[in-house]
Structure formats: C-alpha cells, structure tokens
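Quick start: read one record
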Amino acid sequence: MNRPAPRDEISKTEWHNRAAAVKPRGQAFINGKYVDAASGETFECLSPLDGRLLTRVAATDKADVDAAVAAARASFNTGSWSRMAPAKRKRVLLKLSELILRNAEELALLETLDMGKPISNSLRGDMRAAANSLAWMAEAIDKIYDEVAPTPQDSLALITREPVGVVGAIVPWNFPLLMAAWKFGPALAMGNSVVLKPSEKSPLTAIRVAELAAEAGIPEGVLNVLPGFGQTAGKALALHMDVDCLAFTGSTATGKLMLQYSGQSNMKRVWLECGGKSPNIVMADAHDLDQVARASADAIFYNQGEMCSAGSRLIVQESIRDQLLEKVAALASEYTPSDPLDPATRLGAIVDHVQLSTVLRYIESGRNEGARVALGGKRVREETGGFFVEPTIFDGVKPTMKIAREEIFGPVLATLTFGTVEEALEIANGVDYGLVSAIWTRDITTAHRVAKALRAGTVYVNCYDADDITVPFGGFKQSGNGRDKSLHALDKYVELKTTWIDLKR
C-alpha cells in the first residue's frame, strides 16, 4: 500500500499562516455524526503558545456518554464491525493509517496548537508513530490464531478469542493522537466498538480523526469521540454499566478512581498506565559520557518533559557527577523554549496555565527543600501570552525530596548521587512508580544484575527511550497494569472462551 510521508521542509512562516487560518472542529462524534453536547454546553480550547482561542469544544456529560455507549453497543451487537471478516477489518484500519499520514500536516498543526509541543515533534514523531501503530495492529489482525487444547481423543476443546464488547478509552494530553491510537488501534483490531474520551486539554486531533475513521470505512457507532471533562464525561464513561472494558492513561490519582468506578458499577476490566518517576542510573564505568549526557538531556527535555517515561531522576555515581552534570547542562541550551511553530524549536510550551503552575510549584519546592538549581528554574517568554519554562536541573537532590519522589511532568531534572550499586538500586526502586528505568555500564554482569533488580516495565541498558511498536509498554507498582503496544496489547481487548465438545457417541 502506498504510504505517503508528511513533508519536513515547511517553513516557520508557512506554519504560522496555516495556524492563522485553521478552524478546528469542536463537536463530539457519536454514531457516525458530529453533534453538539446534549446540554449545549461548550468550553474554550486555548492554545498554550499564546493563549489564543482555537475553538469552543462540546462539553459532553452523562447524557452524551449514554448516547455514545448505546451507539457502540448497537454497532457491536449488529456485527457491522465485530463480525466483519478479519482481513476486511485489516484493510479498513490500514486505510485509516494511510489517511492519518495523508493528513499529517493538518493533524500535526492541531496537535501543536492544542498542547504546545514543537511542530517537528508533532509531524515527524507523533503522526508517523500513530499511523504506524494502527498499521501494525491492522497487520496483526489476520495473523492471530486461536487454539485447540490437548484433550483426550473423545473430546475437542477450542480456545477462541472474542472481542470484549464496548471499550471506553480515556487518554492524556501529552501525546493526544498517539496515545489514542495505542488504545483504539488494538481495540478495533479485535472487533470491539470504542468510546474515546480525549483530554479536555488537547481534544482536537481525536475529534478530527473520527472523521478520518469514517472515511476509511469504520461503520457508524464503532468509533465515537467524546470531548469533555474528566469529572463529568470521564467519570460517566468509567461508571457506565454497559462499558465492558476501560483503558486509561493518566495520573495515578485518577487511575485509582477508575478502579473504584469499576467496583461501583459492573466490575468492568480496567487497564491503567499511570505515569512514572523514572531512574536513569549512570555507573562510573559508562562507555561514553557524551552519549550518556545526550540521552539524559533528551530523556527529560523532549516534549517539555511531559512524558510518563521521562528520565526525571539522574542517579549518578559520585566520582563522575560533576563531569556528567556539566555535559547535560551544556546540552540543555539546545532546548531553549522557543516558538513551537518554528521547525527548529526543540522545547515548546507547557500545555496550559494549570500545568505551568504545577511545574513552577515543584521548582520552588526543590529550592525550599535544599536542592541547588544548577540550571534554569524560571518561566520565560511571558510576553507571548504562552506557557514556557526553562530546562531546569537540580543538583544535590535527596531521595526524600518531593522533586525526587513525585511526577512533575515538566522539564525538570533531579540529580542524585550514589556510591555502590546497592545504593543506586535502593534509590531507583524507592518510589511508588515503576514504568521505565535505565542503567549505563560497560560491565555486562552489572547490567544484568541491575536490570533484574529494577522494578520497572522497561529497563534500558546503555540507552534511554529506545522504542518500537513490537515491544510492550507499561508499568509495575503504581505505574499501572496491562501493556500498550506489541501483540500483548491485543490481549486487553478480548475474552478467552473455551468450547468443550464431547465426541463420544
């Protein structure tokens, strides 16, 4: 299939011209149609670049959730998608992947205007990754085989996978379309119907992709999109008695609410990816400190540090701390907050004033608890009306400090030191999270020993944030359960059924 790639050579001026002309849609998408919220209520969608009003978005609530779930249930029961031949479902999802690439420039612009990330990241990273995720799940559809159990000769036991039914997907604002694709891609691949609730902070690409899904051939009611607030639309979706499965990415506090809502309703299965406070451990014998510094800077400053997998704790052996910290600080200059619509920009805007205040409070907390600001620590570009924070590095951080224990979701690096491997592991594992981690060493024994001991869903060895759709992503401890990406993601959206046939006459 021809898979067009988005252009990379669009100028800053052209992006600004497009931004001035863009008119994003803000309605919900229910049963194949764009509709206003049943209440008629809307909320302002403001750009973190400069505070401009992008559009007014439908503030959906329980009535809209009821309508969307009813449409999803009806489409599932009629079998328009759930009983479609796997090879045909594959073709439809491949078409949607292609349409995302064909419309990547429009989608990337919406993503950047909506949540503040640099346009190059949106275009070259998020859109391509979202399209690839859908294509990969589509290709898996007709390659997943069911099983025959090794029963006695007078019996036949079939083990089959069936779609779970109606899937509610609640996704965050930091990678709006990519995180959505990680949820609805495998859910749709296995024949489910989906109600997607994007974050109220960044709903625009999810709203637009619903139209592309219809164009690709996904039947009415199979993919519904409900913009709205977590405490209204999100809660109603999580409590709904006719939602069979809930897939959530967001904060640990909200993830715990999802589990409560499941227990208060129909015991729907709940899959959670709830963030992290990831340790990046550097041994004194690391191969190349320039490489370590580059990876460490990218791990915390990419996407403004608004990543659940951000390497927010740099845990360095004492003898190389000063040398490594100097190198990381020098590289931070490449992440000067700048115009997100400039293709050269590497660090954009914080998503909104609420998150900006949160990041600044954590920086102040670090100062108050005695950590040293080695770099940055201030809001900048206030004259633009946008929400920008300097790359910030703390030194002299203790494991008990808030900036070493709590997820900040901003470009703030906490540097801690250790003497022995045992001390490094105690610091690394001494938080509530367990999403990703890293170890840098040239000693293969140390690498294996530390990797086994780290309580995290992913351990990077001599790298950070290496990524591929073929490997699962998810966490230990309060970073959640279940896995996105890879074939393991499909397991979340199916029921295993045993059919036992007695062959005795």
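The chain has a mean pLDDT of 97.
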